[in-house]
Amino acid sequence: MRKYVVIVAGGKGLRMGGDLPKQFIPVGGKPVLMHTLNTFYTYDPEIEIILVLPSDHHTYWAELCRECELTIPHRIAPEGVTRFHSVRNGLSLIAEEEGLVAVHDGVRPFVSQEVIARCYKAAVQYEAVIPVTDIVETLRRMDASASIIVDRSRYKLVQTPQVFSVSLLKKCYDREFMDCFTDDASVVEAAGKTVHLVEGNRENIKITTPFDLKLAEILLNV
Fold first, then answer.
1. Nearest to 105 by CA among 11, 19, 31, 20
2. Which of 198, 208, 202 is nearest to 102 (CA)?
3. Which of 7, 34, 35, 202 is buried most deeply by CB count within 10 Å?
4. pLDDT at residue 29 above 50?
């Protein structure tokens, strides 16, 4: 079954405190985004990679690819107004209806090969799969006047890649945007489809802050 991955990289890096978008910040001598592409290419050199970037970043990305001698095949789609629209733009480059498509955050370079394989394998059976991890710290819910401890075993942290059958995801994205769409699973669930959970890996961090960058340098050398 043919595999695709739509890698969304539209971050502006505001929480990093600098002008360089977070997906282009170097870790271990290469931009974060290149590590992410390499992770999926290492998993399967035949996978079709679709990268979603803001239009005004396309030239800069091409320059980075030349400088770093990146030869991983990939196609580029333009960023949309929201993440929802960005994913839809990426899906528009997939002409086929058969196969499996993952949607992944461009700043999550440390998803393990085992988790990627687990998601694609489960998607063959369930059509809609997301990786999650347990919450290991105490969790409290805030209300107007106080905070209340909650049972953390009833909650999970959601990661990417989120993997779906191509036909299902394209059908689910053929609708108007809603504010409740925070990830691809929420779009699919709004269409009435149940999402299956699989185990993720804790190293699969989303690099969004200076602290995350420090952690990324450590993970890269483990």
1. 11
2. 198
3. 7
4. yes
